[in-house]
Design goal:
By secondary structure, the protein is an alpha+beta fold. It contains nine helices and 27 strands. It has a seven-stranded mixed sheet, sandwiched between helices. β26 and β27 form a beta hairpin. α1 (88-94) crosses α9 and α2 packs across α3 (145-155). The protein is globular, with a radius of gyration of 24 Å.
Length: 528
């Protein structure tokens, strides 16, 4: 999965069946040192074969490749985002494997579908592929291709056509970047980018908690063997992956798009975590194939015990994450200057990222003493997001020794309508921690906030906003609470129906006479 190519338009695709021709009818093509399949099709619901290698071993199961969010089958053999050609297909070819490529709905480049929609489509193709070979296949899946694959196997009967599944950087428990995409502050930019779609929505941690709760207790989950792989690099310096990695760092080690803890299944075998792999390079053959290939030589495996008693209970499991961030966002009108403020309570270093829909919006930071920081006089990196906020223009300021007090960030927009999302990440030894279940019954939909500090009984002002699946604000409450021994308990509002709800909590408080601002973002599935 790459969290990319997001658009709000949903396309209804007529699934066409591909007419296969014997592989001997096609020569193997090599372009600029890259191996290409003999034939390609980009219609969702079609599948095609890689060339049969000269050292083809009929005893080895065919490998079906399932790409990630917003991707297409050629993600396995054309250029990656940062590292040139992906040689995964070539790596399998050289080892004598017959390869198969599938096109999910995302291949239409008209938005990403949920794992249920893609899973249903994948299941139909796996049935055809099984009929073609007369034996089970193994699957290598990248990113959201992992949940898509598992939906096909567990819910649509495709477990009978598959032996083993290897997932590479798959968000089995969702991604906090998807939570951010559907948060209160990100709504304006996400809508302007055409970014809210079924695929992004399905990867919120609350939505995936509900998926895990149902999937991990389904008896079909034991009918295949799962292997997982994770990376913990953030990609090239100052890249979009680095921006995502910094945001996700509050939730633990990650590959720039997915946290390591989210890549593992408690009934699967975690093969390895590689600190040199990011979400882009983890799908490259030269980086991982030799390490996963020994597990792909057969489709048979020892029986897996029933998952009835080992499935994660997301109804009671608490997901905890520390936070040193302030987040704000909003619309920008043409020929205008907009301004937001945030409070810093101590001398600190910070990374300040501003995402906009165009590259024409000028960003200025103003310190409490009046110092002005722009891209002309500061250390600023610019890039275009290719993943979670695909198409957004990113300006990242690295500020050292930020003084305590009220800071301002100004946005000057002269060309056309725009929107922004500002994420400031501070070096702070005493972050707030938010503890909230991924899924909860309405009467147990609570959360805890904690902070270690010199004053464990201080007051904090909270603005809590809750939005539903359509982005509608259903609750907005402001309250001042007192931490008791460094923690407090809060309750989410009553909802009218079961579903995933996105929670944004803006905090204001005082530390040794200086005010501070922080933001917490999470999603939760509330079961009525």
């Amino acid at each position: 999965m790459r969290l990319r190519r997001l658009t709000a338009v949903m396309l209804v695709v007529v699934v066409a069946l591909f007419s296969f021709v014997p592989m001997s009818a096609f020569p193997t093509e090599v372009h600029a040192g890259k191996l290409f399949p003999p034939h390609e099709s980009f219609t969702p619901g079609t599948w095609y074969l890689g060339a049969q290698p000269p050292n083809y071993d009929p005893n080895k199961p065919p490998i079906v490749f399932v790409q990630g969010k917003g991707g297409a089958a050629n993600d396995w053999y054309t250029d990656t985002t940062y590292y040139g050609a992906n040689d995964m297909y070539e790596s399998a070819y050289k080892k004598g494997y017959q390869t198969v490529f599938v096109q999910l709905y995302d291949a239409a480049r008209q938005g990403s579908k949920s794992q249920y929609d893609n899973g249903r489509l994948l299941a139909s193709m796996l049935s055809q592929i099984y009929s073609r070979f007369g034996k089970k296949v193994n699957i290598i899946a990248h990113s959201k291709g992992g949940p898509d694959t598992q939906a096909a196997l567990v819910y649509y009967g495709a477990h009978q056509y598959v032996g083993k599944v290897v997932t590479l950087g798959s968000p089995h428990y969702g991604s906090h970047l998807a939570d951010l995409s559907y948060s209160w502050w990100a709504g304006w930019l996400a809508s302007l980018l055409g970014q809210k779609d079924d695929g992004t929505y399905s990867l919120q941690t609350g939505q995936m908690a509900n998926f895990r709760s149902a999937t991990d207790s389904n008896p079909n989950v034991s009918k295949n063997k799962y292997y997982t792989v994770a990376g913990t690099s953030w990609g090239p310096a100052l890249s979009a992956l680095a921006t995502g990695g910094l945001y996700l760092s509050s939730h633990g080690s990650n590959d720039g798009l997915v946290n390591e803890w989210s890549t593992k299944l408690n009934y699967g075998v975690h093969l390895f975590t590689d600190g040199s792999l990011d979400h882009d390079s983890i799908r490259m053959g030269s980086r991982v194939f030799s390490r996963i290939e020994p597990y792909l030589r057969t489709s048979t495996f020892s029986a897996i015990k029933s998952t009835k008693n080992i499935a994660n209970n997301n109804e009671i499991e608490k997901i905890e994450s520390a936070n040193n961030q302030v987040i704000v966002g909003g619309p920008l009108t043409q020929n205008s200057v907009s301004e937001k403020s945030f409070d810093v309570d101590r001398l600190t270093n910070a990374t300040l990222s501003v995402l906009t829909a165009t590259n024409q919006t000028e960003v200025t930071f103003i310190s409490p003493s009046g110092k002005v920081f722009t891209k002309d006089n500061s250390k600023v990196a610019t890039s275009q997001d290719q993943d979670a906020f695909r198409g957004a223009y990113v300006q990242t300021f690295e500020l050292k020794g930020m003084e305590a007090g009220k800071w301002k960030v100004q946005f000057k927009n002269a060309t056309k309508e725009d929107a922004y999302l500002f994420v400031g990440t501070f070096d702070d030894k005493t972050p707030f921690s938010l503890v909230m279940p991924g899924k909860a019954k309405q009467d147990k939909a609570n959360f805890f906030m904690k902070q270690e500090s010199d004053n464990p009984n201080k007051e904090v002002e909270m603005m809590i906003r809750v939005v539903d699946e359509k982005g509608n604000l259903i609750s907005e409450t402001k309250q001042t609470r007192k931490l008791t021994n460094g923690s407090l308990e809060g309750w989410l509002p009553k909802v009218t129906k079961s579903g995933t709800y996105n929670i944004t909590i803006d905090l204001k408080g005082n530390n040794n006479g200086h005010e501070y601002t922080r933001t917490l973002v999470r999603s939760v599935y509330i079961d009525k």
